[in-house]
Specification:
This protein is 8% helix and 50% strand. A hairpin with a 3-residue loop joins strand 4 and strand 5. It starts with a strand and ends in a 17-residue tail after the last helix. The N terminus is likely disordered.
Length: 363
C-alpha cells in the first residue's frame, strides 16, 4: 500500500510509520526545554487511515500557569496526567492520574492525590458488558493527617460496585443500581480519655487504632422512563447507614432513606419544565425550573419549614453563536449517554463516599 503525490516517487506507509516512531522520543525530549508543548493532528501531522495492529499516536501537552502546572499524554487507549497546584498563600497539592483501555470492553484507572489536608489513592474499573450496559467498580483510601492539638490521623477506606443499563424504543429509558461501603479508623496518636461502660476494656489496654472507628453502608437505585416523546421521569431511592464503634462495640447507628422524583418536560417553542421532589429525614424539598430560550426561572422550597421559597431569574447566551444555535433546546435523551471509557475510569463515581472520622466520646 503506497501514497502518491503528483509525480513524486511513492512513499511506503510502513517506512513513514517507522520514521514517525523513531522521531517521537526526540520530539518528546525536546519539548522539555519549552514552556508549552501541544502536539495534535492539526499541527501538520499526516492523517492516515486506521491500520490493523498500529496504535493511534498520542498527544503530549504541557501547560504552565501562575498557580498550576500540568503535563499530560493522551492516545486512543491510554492517558497520563500530572498536575501541581500552588495557589498564592496556600499549601501546594499534587495529583497523578493514569487510565488505560485494557480491552475493547474493559478500562482501568488510578488517581493519586496529595495535599496538606489529605492524601488519597483511587482505583477505578469500567466494564462495558454490552453497548448499552456498563459495570463500574471503585476502591479508594484516604488519609487525613492529625491536627496540632494532638488529634490522631484518620485512615478511610471505601468500595463501590454499580451497574447501569439504558434502552431505546421502549418506555423504560434506563436503570442503575449502586452499592458502597466504607470504614474510617484512627491510625496512630496519643491515647484519649474514653468513657468506660458495660464492662468495656480500659483505653490503655488497647492500641489506639482499636479505640474508635466508623462505618457506612449505602445503596442507590434509579429507574427512568419516558411516558411520552418529550417527557422523562426518574425515580430514585437512596439508603445510607452510619455506625460508630468504640472498643469494637457499637456505640451509635443511624439510617437515612431519601426518595426522589424528577420530571423533565419539553414543549414547543423551546420551553422546558424540569423539577424534583425529595423526601427524607432531612425534610421535604421541592425544586422547579422553567426555561424558555435563554431565560430561566428557578424556584426552590423547603416544605418542612415555613420559610418563603427562593426564586432566581437568569439569562444566558453564548456570544458569537447564531440565534438558532443559541436557543437550541437540549434533549432529554442526552442524559442517557455514557461518558468515554477513559474519562469514566479517571473520574470519581457520583455515589462514592468515605465514612466520617470516628466520633469518640471524651471527658
Amino acid at each position: 500500500m503506497t501514497r502518491r503525490s503528483g509525480n513524486k516517487e511513492p512513499i511506503p506507509v510502513r517506512v513513514f510509520l517507522a520514521a514517525a516512531l523513531l522521531l517521537a522520543p526526540v520530539i518528546a525530549t525536546a519539548s522539555s526545554h519549552g514552556d508549552v508543548l501541544r502536539l495534535s493532528p492539526a499541527d501538520g501531522v499526516l492523517d492516515l487511515p486506521d491500520l490493523p495492529g498500529v496504535p493511534e499516536a498520542g498527544n503530549w501537552q504541557l501547560d504552565i500557569a501562575e498557580s498550576q502546572a500540568a503535563l499530560g499524554f493522551a492516545s486512543a487507549g491510554e492517558r497520563w496526567d500530572a498536575r501541581v497546584d500552588y495557589p498564592l498563600g496556600m499549601p501546594p497539592s499534587m495529583r497523578l492520574t493514569h487510565t488505560r483501555r485494557l480491552t475493547d470492553k474493559l478500562g482501568a484507572g488510578a488517581r493519586m492525590q496529595h495535599g496538606a489536608d489529605a492524601s488519597e489513592v483511587l482505583l477505578n474499573a469500567v466494564y462495558a458488558h454490552k453497548q448499552n450496559m456498563r459495570i463500574r467498580m471503585a476502591a479508594g483510601q484516604r488519609r487525613i493527617p492529625g491536627d496540632e492539638n494532638g488529634g490522631a490521623p484518620v485512615v478511610q477506606q471505601s468500595y463501590l460496585l454499580g451497574a447501569r443499563k439504558y434502552w431505546r424504543r421502549t418506555p423504560w429509558t434506563d436503570a442503575s443500581i449502586t452499592m458502597y461501603a466504607g470504614r474510617a479508623r484512627n491510625s496512630s496518636g496519643s491515647m484519649p480519655e474514653v468513657f468506660e461502660d458495660d464492662g468495656m476494656a480500659a483505653a490503655d489496654d488497647l492500641p489506639w487504632r482499636d479505640i474508635g472507628s466508623s462505618r457506612i453502608r449505602g445503596s442507590s437505585l434509579r429507574l427512568g422512563f419516558a411516558p411520552a416523546m418529550h417527557t422523562r421521569v426518574e425515580l430514585q431511592h437512596d439508603f445510607l447507614r452510619t455506625s460508630q464503634y468504640v472498643h469494637g462495640r457499637l456505640l451509635d447507628s443511624e439510617a437515612e432513606r431519601v426518595a426522589r422524583v424528577r420530571l423533565r418536560q419539553e414543549f414547543r417553542g423551546c420551553v422546558m419544565l424540569s423539577g424534583g421532589y425529595a423526601d427524607g429525614q432531612g425534610g421535604r424539598q421541592l425544586d422547579l425550573q422553567l426555561r424558555h430560550a435563554n431565560w430561566r426561572v428557578h424556584l426552590q422550597q423547603n416544605l418542612a419549614t415555613e420559610a418563603a421559597p427562593s426564586v432566581w431569574i437568569g439569562y444566558s447566551r453564548t456570544l458569537g453563536e447564531s440565534g438558532a444555535t443559541a436557543t437550541a433546546c437540549a434533549r432529554a435523551q442526552d442524559d442517557q449517554r455514557f461518558e468515554p471509557m477513559l474519562s469514566a475510569a479517571a473520574s470519581r463515581p457520583v455515589d462514592f463516599a468515605y465514612a466520617p472520622p470516628p466520633d469518640l466520646p471524651v471527658e
